[in-house]
Each structure stands twice: as structure tokens, then as C-alpha cells.
UniProtKB/TrEMBL annotation:
<dbReference type="Pfam" id="PF17203">
    <property type="entry name" value="sCache_3_2"/>
</dbReference>
<dbReference type="InterPro" id="IPR029151">
    <property type="entry name" value="Sensor-like_sf"/>
</dbReference>
<keyword id="KW-0418">Kinase</keyword>
<feature type="transmembrane region" description="Helical">
    <location>
        <begin position="175"/>
        <end position="196"/>
    </location>
</feature>
<keyword id="KW-0378">Hydrolase</keyword>
<dbReference type="InterPro" id="IPR000014">
    <property type="entry name" value="PAS"/>
</dbReference>
<keyword id="KW-0547">Nucleotide-binding</keyword>
<keyword id="KW-0597">Phosphoprotein</keyword>
<dbReference type="Pfam" id="PF13581">
    <property type="entry name" value="HATPase_c_2"/>
</dbReference>
<dbReference type="InterPro" id="IPR036457">
    <property type="entry name" value="PPM-type-like_dom_sf"/>
</dbReference>
<feature type="domain" description="PPM-type phosphatase">
    <location>
        <begin position="529"/>
        <end position="749"/>
    </location>
</feature>
<dbReference type="InterPro" id="IPR003594">
    <property type="entry name" value="HATPase_dom"/>
</dbReference>
<dbReference type="InterPro" id="IPR013656">
    <property type="entry name" value="PAS_4"/>
</dbReference>
<keyword id="KW-0067">ATP-binding</keyword>
<keyword id="KW-0812">Transmembrane</keyword>
<dbReference type="InterPro" id="IPR033463">
    <property type="entry name" value="sCache_3"/>
</dbReference>
<feature type="transmembrane region" description="Helical">
    <location>
        <begin position="13"/>
        <end position="38"/>
    </location>
</feature>
Length: 879
């Protein structure tokens, strides 16, 4: 509202423009209305003349008009026709008369027979007449036309007319529409003028003419007073305006305005930029001894008018200040990047290389990192030992510096030697003038100087009181030598890297210890046995040593136990826990327990370990441990399995079909409270049993079902040997570093031939022992083992006699010819025999002692119903 009142006030330029526009629009509207009314009246009169003439001629030439005039009573015939024609043609009258002007027809019947009012002489001569007259019905426009015989004889006249009152009525009917349109046009013009004036008011800020004149005077004064050059050029490159600062900065002549920019004596780069008219933002141009920042924009951003506006400012001093600020900012960014980019891994060499890559070329042209050999292995640095060039980075590959992995010692006079000895950084701003460092290698030193290396900073890698090595920063391209500020930056960079390198060194040491411990706990070789053909793989995790383990344990009766386990976690604790569990399984397997019972004992052991370690706050308990234990009997080809939280085994049948047997899964070891169920499988000869840890089938990106399906596909396409199977399984894994350890065992089942198995039922009669001994001797002779007959007879005699005295029937004897000669005596009693040493006066008690002396091994194996006492003898060397 305030803006509208300002516009209507007329004091501002916008108000004056609004009033002027409104007056002009009002005059145009009034003139248009008057002209339109006059035009309408003229057109209406012309329309009346044309219509009356057309109606008269039409009626005069209508069929029957001549006959009606010649009839005895023309009025009777023509009056109805004339009235009908008048109503249809919307005229005021149609009058038919004779050649004397006496009317035959008229809208008013009392006027029939009277003299026609109007001019008829031209019509009598055959010429139509149109005129405006004062007739009997008022002022009117009428036309008179002749009615002619075919020979041209005029036999009558016809007149048609419209009163001027009706003509004026049409004009008056249109006048409200015309006035309404005029008012609408006036309103629209007023609104348009108000909008234009409001825009002008906004642009001129309500200023009046005198105020605007004064403003432009001030603007001109300011334009020439500012310390920034302003130039305006047209599209042809002609200089239209240049303020005083532009004249000074470019040294323009006094008559520069109005001349082309090429005629101003400017340098080619400046001339090209100004004449091109292109957009430029803070483009720096050297003009004399100045650095000018040029900004250039078109005068019309829409591109409708060519031309440009150029502003120029002197940035010579600002450039120097901003250069130093930019250098400081770059150094801060480098330190930030060092914090996040150095030490991304726990690898000493990689961390050293990250430092070198970060500093080249942002800080130095070449960077070398030299570490003591013991540091690379995770040990303490030895000042008397040699160093190895661990990292090397540069802007070129042909620098004559010691190459990567080169081993050497620095002389005491070299900058690196001084840094190692004092633990402080050394700056050599002019390397060619520093004679001490040339004693390191005179020939190579000369090559380095000749190559262009002219400045050096050496910084020791310190981690507390330890000096791990030295970092050297070499400069070639930048002519200025390193300064004290850059020395401080180098020290800060190396200090940050030293922490990461020391962490990597400590990790390397712990990792090496863990690897050593773990490898010492894993089986170095597999025991000799004939029941299974076995191949295995063990892959440690990249992140650290874990707790995966496996073992192959020969059991009595030619049986073999396979075990695979996994302790959750990595590091020394996981490896040590794995060793304890493996030792426990070794001991428990000697008891010849079923798989479920062995896992129950192992579960109880882990629970006790957790209770003991829970009392020590510095030792973490066993968070989780899984295990799968399987026992294969080559005689029956049966395999008993039980698992505690472990992935299921895979079975590859001889025809290549792969399946995952349904082995009941128990809780992980250490939870306690639930029994472990066993499952029993029959393994066809040549089938492969695959045991593995979860690292083979699980990862963070896929579900275990995906891993199992990938394992199934690998096993289906693998070769038949265990070695080929292991290779195919590991090659099927997706590429990348393993996040967890992987233990894999592939065992192909073998069966003991029936010809190497002998069984005899023994009645509970002492006389049957003799018959048994004879049968055993015959079987040994058949196998070619006569050398073992004496010992075998004694062993079986003692074991069978004990079974008869202390056991219960039925009694069964079995003899197996495998890697050893195995003798087994079964009875249904669960009473275990005990080995004891008989005195000189004892009558008995020497049977088991004799068995122990004659056999390589002996023991007792308990079955669900009874027990088996077994003894193994070594085969003769020539067998």
C-alpha cells in the first residue's frame, strides 16, 4: 500500500510515469469509443441503404409483380405480398405504386391510393433511387426501383425503406457493449501502468528526477574513486567506459574510451581476454610487475545484447599472503591425512610405505624409510644391527638412491647416522655442501647430487625410548631448500607414523608367537593307519592366529578317530585353548569312548577351564568352542559321529553324490546341561568324509546355506582322491582375505578285506581253549605269520581264560591282520581286568602281565553290552 500511495503521489519518477501512462491510455480509449460509435452509425446507415435497395429490387423482379400491376385490382393482389416481404426482410415498408406515384400497398392501409412521398423520376427512367427523406412514417432511408416489362417499359414502381429511428436503435443497442469494452481496456491499462510504475519504483527506490540525477552524479564519483578497475566494452571490443583505477592498472591513454581494446597498448594475454568477452572469474594476469585478478561477465546474461563488464583488482600482496596461508592449510591437511591414512594395517612394511606415499609429492620429491631388521620381525631394535630399506617413494623411478629391500649401515657422519645416534632430526639445506654424508658412499653420493637432489631432512622413528629406524626426505624440483618450518612438519609426520609402526611391530611379534604356538600344537604329520586315506589343509586367518584345529587318532581294532574343532577368537589365548582341547581329546580317545561320551567329557573340561579363568580378571574365558568327533571302523565300514555346535560333515559317495548327513547337533562346549547324541553312518568303500570348520562356509556377506551350497558344488566336481578334493574345495572359495581360520580334512574310506578277518565263538569250556589255539595257528600259517604263533597262542589263551573265569558268556574271539596283528576277546561282562604284579608265592595273577610283555599295546574297549580286551603285536619285518 505504501508503494501504491507513492506511485499515486506523482512526486517520484515512477508516479510521474504512472500518471502519464494513465492520461495517454484514457485519451486513447475515449478516441477509440468515439470513432467506434461513428463507425457503427455509418455502417448502420449503409446497411439500411443496401437492405432497402435489395428488398425493393427483389420485390420488383419477383414473379407475378407485373401481372398484379396489370390486374383490375393490384392492391388486393400486392398488399399481402408486400406485407409478407416487409416482415421477412425486417424493413419498415414495402410500397408498390403505379407510374404516377399512386400507392397500391402500404403498411398503413389508409395511405393506399395516396401519392408516394419521394423521388420517382429517375426510377421512371429505369434508374434505382436511394435517398433519405421525411416520409409519412418519419425520417427514413428508402429506395425506389422500376418494375419493367421485358421490353424495358416501366409499368410500376417499388419502394422499400427503413426509418432512421430503427437505424439509431441498433447503434444505441451496441453502445453499452462498446462502453464496457472501453472501461475494461481502461482498467487493464491502469493495472499495467501500475505494475510498470511499481517495478520502476522498486528499481529507482522511490526517487524523484532530481534525486536520481544526484544519485547518478554520486555513482560517477564513486566509480572513479574505488580501488578496483571497472571497464565496459561493447560486443565489438570497443572500450565504452573505464574508471580511474582501470586507467592506472592498465596504463590506459587519456582517450582510451571509444577506441578498440587492441589499440590500447595492452599485452597479448590481456587483449585476448578483454576482446573475447568470455566469462572469467579471478583469472590472474601478470601486467608489468603486478598480478591482476580479472573478473569478466556479459552485460546481458541472457545473451540478447553483446558486451561485457570487466572488474580488475591488484592482488600482488594478497597473493603472497594467501600463498603462505595456503601452504599452512596444506600442511594441516597433510597432518590430518597422516592421522587417517597411516597405520591402516598392522603390517610394518605397509605402514612405512603409507608414510612414503603420503609425503610424495606433497612434501618431498623422494622419501625413504629404513628400519632395523629386528623391527621387521617384531623384535626390539638393535642399534648395532643393519638396516633395511623398507619403503621407497618418489616422483621418478630412476633416482640413484638405495633401492627397496637393500640392507646397509649408515656411517656416523651421515645425517641418517647422526639422527640414529642422537634421536633428533637433522636438516641439510644444501646437500652438496655437507661433506659428512658423502662418506656413506662417495660414488652414489655424487650421483645423487648430479641427479638434482639438493636438500635433505632425516628424522628418527622414535617410539618412546626406542629408535626403530630413520626416515629421509629428499628434494629435487623445488629450488628452495628445506627450512626450519618444514623440519618441524617432517618431525610431526614421522612421530605419527612411528606410533603406527611400533603398533605393527608389537602385533608382528605377538602374531609370530601365536603362529609358532599354534603350529607347534597342530599335528606335524598324520599317524600311520590303513583305515582312511587322508588329506588336510589348514589356512590361518589374515587378521591373526585363531583356534581352529584337527587331529587324526588311531584307535584299537584298526579304527581311526577324526576330530575337528574351533575355538572362537584369535591370538595367543585362542591358540593356547586350542592346544589344551587337542591334548584332552588325545587323552580321552585313549579310553575308547563313543563320540557322544567323549564330547560330554570335553564339555565338562571346558566348563572347568571357564570356572578357573573366571577368577582371573586378566584372562578371558572360552567364549565358544565347537567340535566334531568321528570314529570309523574299517571292518564294519560304520562311522559314528557326534558334534557340539559344529557345522555338519559332508559325505561324497563313490558315484559323486554329495550329501550332508543329519548328525544331531549339541550345544557348544562349555555350556553343559545337555547330552550329546551320536549318529552312525555306513560308508561305502571309496566314499569321502569331509570335515571342516565354519571359516570354510561362513562369512559376513553370505548366509551359511550359501557356503554349504558352494561346498556341495565343489565336492561334486572334485576328483576322487582326497588331495584333489581339498584343492577343489579351497579353489571354490571367493577371492579375498580369509576372516577366519579354515581347517579341512578329507578322508576316503577303506575296508579291511574279509580274508584278513578271523572270528571264532568260544564255549564256556576250558577244553575249548586248545581248539581255539589250533585254529589260530592255522590262520596265522594261512596269513604267513607263523613267527607270531607262539606269542599269539599265549595272548589268546590268557585273555580267553580270564573271560571264562571273570566274564560272562557269550565269548567271541576276533583276529585282524592289518598294520598290526590284533587279537580281541569279547564277553558280555563289563568287569574290567587290572594288571598287577604277582609275588613269588602267588599262584595266579600273571596272565595280563604276560600279555603286556608279549603285545605292543593292549587295553579294554567297552561296548553297550559287554567289553572287548584287545592286544596288538607288531608284524615281522619281512611281512
Amino acid at each position: 500500500m505504501a508503494g501504491l500511495r507513492s506511485v499515486l503521489s506523482g512526486r517520484s519518477v515512477a508516479g510521474q510515469v504512472f500518471v502519464l501512462l494513465l492520461v495517454m491510455v484514457l485519451l486513447l480509449v475515449v478516441a477509440a469509443v468515439v470513432a467506434l460509435v461513428l463507425q457503427v452509425q455509418r455502417d448502420s446507415t449503409q446497411e439500411a441503404r443496401n437492405r432497402s435497395l435489395a428488398v425493393a429490387e427483389t420485390f420488383a423482379n419477383a414473379p407475378g409483380t407485373i401481372e398484379a400491376l396489370n390486374s383490375p385490382d393490384p392492391t388486393a393482389v400486392l398488399q399481402p405480398r408486400a406485407e409478407a416481404a416487409r416482415e421477412r426482410s425486417h424493413v419498415d415498408f414495402v410500397v408498390v405504386m403505379n407510374t404516377d406515384g399512386i400507392r397500391y400497398t402500404h403498411p398503413r392501409p389508409d395511405r393506399i391510393g395516396k401519392q408516394f412521398v419521394g423521388t420517382v423520376e429517375p426510377a421512371l427512367r429505369g434508374e434505382p433511387v436511394v435517398e433519405e427523406i421525411e416520409g409519412t412514417i418519419g425520417r427514413l432511408v428508402q429506395a425506389v426501383v422500376p418494375v419493367e416489362e421485358p421490353d424495358g417499359t416501366v409499368v410500376g414502381l417499388v419502394s422499400a425503406g427503413i426509418t432512421l429511428e430503427n437505424v439509431g436503435g441498433a447503434t444505441e443497442a451496441q453502445l453499452p457493449l462498446v462502453l464496457g469494452a472501453a472501461l475494461a481496456a481502461l482498467a487493464l491499462a491502469t493495472v499495467g501502468a501500475a505494475l510498470i510504475s511499481r517495478r520502476l519504483l522498486h528499481q529507482t527506490h522511490g526517487l524523484g528526477p532530481h534525486e536520481m540525477t544526484r544519485m547518478y552524479e554520486h555513482h560517477d564519483a564513486v566509480l572513479h574513486a574505488v580501488r578496483e578497475g571497472v571497464m565496459i566494452l561493447d560486443g565489438d571490443g570497443t572500450l565504452l567506459l573505464a574508471n580511474d583505477e582501470a586507467h592506472r592498472l592498465f596504463s590506459l591513454p587519456e582517450d582510451a574510451e571509444g577506441r578498440h581494446v587492441r589499440d590500447q597498448g595492452l599485452d597479448p594475454a590481456t587483449t585476448e581476454l578483454l576482446s573475447s568477452g568470455r566469462v572469467a572469474t579471478d583469472e590472474v594476469l601478470p601486467v608489468g610487475d603486478r598480478l591482476l585478478a580479472v573478473n569478466q561477465r556479459p552485460t546481458d546474461p541472457a545473451g540478447r545484447h553483446r558486451g561485457s563488464v570487466t572488474t580488475v583488482r591488484d592482488t600482488t600482496e594478497l597473493r603472497a599472503l594467501s600463498g603462505r596461508a595456503e601452504e599452512s592449510r596444506e600442511r594441516l591437511n597433510m597432518l590430518y591425512d597422516a592421522g587417517v591414512g597411516i597405520g591402516t594395517s598392522l603390517d610394518v612394511a605397509r605402514t612405512a610405505q603409507e608414510l612414503s606415499d603420503l609425503a610424495v609429492p606433497r612434501f618431498a620429491d623422494f622419501v625413504t624409510v629404513d628400519l632395523f631388521e629386528s623391527v621387521l620381525a617384531g623384535g626390539q631394535p638393535d642399534a648395532a644391527a643393519a638396516l633395511r630399506r623398507t619403503a621407497w617413494a618418489g616422483i621418478a623411478d630412476d633416482a640413484p638412491l638405495y633401492p627397496k629391500h637393500h640392507q646397509f649401515r649408515f656411517v656416523e657422519s651421515s645425517p641418517q647416522g647422526r639422527s640414529l645416534a642422537t634421536g633428533r632430526a637433522v636438516l641439510e639445506p644444501r646437500l652438496e655442501e655437507a661433506p659428512g654424508w658423502q662418506a656413506q658412499d662417495k660414488e652414489r653420493s655424487a650421483q645423487i647430487v648430479e641427479y638434482g637432489v639438493h636438500s635433505l631432512i632425516t628424522v628418527p622413528l622414535r617410539a618412546g625410548a626406542l629408535v626403530l629406524g630413520v626416515v629421509s626426505f629428499w628434494r629435487t624440483r623445488k629450488p628452495e631448500p628445506f627450512d626450519e618450518e618444514e623440519l618441524a612438519l617432517a618431525e610431526e609426520l614421522v612421530a605419527r607414523a612411528a606410533v603406527s609402526i611400533d603398533n605393527a611391530r608389537r602385533y608382528t611379534r605377538e602374531h609370530s608367537m601365536a603362529v609358532t604356538l599354534q603350529r607347534s600344537l597342530l599335528p606335524r604329520t598324520l599317524p600311520e593307519q590303513n583305515a582312511l586315506e587322508i588329506a588336510y589343509r589348514y589356512l590361518p586367518a589374515q587378521a591373526g592366529v585363531g583356534g581352529d584345529w584337527f587331529d587324526v587318532l588311531p584307535l584299537s581294532g584298526a579304527r581311526v578317530a577324526l576330530v575337528v574343532g574351533d575355538v572362537v577368537g584369535h591370538g595367543l589365548h585362542a591358540a593356547a585353548t586350542m592346544g589344551r582341547l587337542r591334548t584332552a581329546v588325545h587323552n580321552f580317545s585313549a579310553l575308547d569312548l563313543p563320540p557322544g561320551e567323549l564330547l560330554a567329557l570335553l564339555d565338562e573340561l571346558v566348563g572347568r577351564i571357564d570356572q578357573d579363568e573366571a577368577q582371573d580378571e586378566h584372562v578371558a574365558p572360552v567364549i565358544g568352542a565347537t567340535c566334531l568327533y568321528a570314529v570309523y571302523d574299517p571292518v564294519s565300514r560304520r562311522c559314528a559321529l557326534a558334534r557340539a555346535g559344529h557345522p555338519p560333515p559332508a559325505l561324497v559317495r563313490p558315484d559323486g553324490q554329495v550329501e550332508f548327513p543329519d548328525v544331531p547337533v549339541g550345544p557348544p562346549l562349555g555350556l553343559g546341561g545337555l547330552p550329546f547324541e551320536s549318529a552312525e553312518l555306513e560308508l561305502p568303500e571309496g566314499s569321502r568324509l569331509v570335515l571342516y570348520t565354519d571359516g570354510l562356509v561362513e562369512d559376513r556377506e553370505h548366509d551359511i546355506d550359501v557356503g554349504l551350497e558352494r561346498l556341495r558344488e565343489a565336492l561334486a566336481g572334485a576328483g576322487k582322491s582326497p588331495e584333489e578334493t581339498c584343492r577343489a574345495v579351497l579353489e571354490s572359495r571367493p577371492p579375498g582375505k580369509a576372516a577366519d581360520d579354515i581347517a579341512l580334512i578329507v578322508a576316503r574310506a577303506r575296508a579291511l578285506p574279509a580274508g584278513r578277518i578271523a572270528e571264532w565263538p568260544v564255549p564256556s569250556d576250558p577244553a575249548a581253549v586248545g581248539e581255539l589255539r589250533a585254529a589260530v595257528v592255522r590262520k596265522l600259517a594261512e596269513w604267513g605269520l607263523q613267527e607270531l604263533s607262539f606269542g599269539t597262542e599265549l595272548i589268546l589263551s590268557e585273555l580267553v581264560t580270564n573271560a571264562m573265569r571273570h566274564g560272562a558268556p557269550p565269548i567271541q574271539v576276533r583276529m585282524l591282520y592289518e598294520r598290526h596283528l590284533i587279537c580281541e576277546v569279547y564277553d558280555s561282562s563289563s568287569t574290567a581286568p587290572h594288571l598287577r604284579y604277582a609275588t613269588m608265592t602267588d599262584e595266579g595273577g600273571r596272565g595280563l602281565f604276560l600279555v603286556a610283555q608279549l603285545a605292543e599295546r593292549w587295553g579294554t574297549r567297552y561296548l553297550p553290552a559287554g567289553k572287548v580286551i584287545w592286544a596288538e603285536q607288531n608284524l615281522p619285518p619281512d611281512v
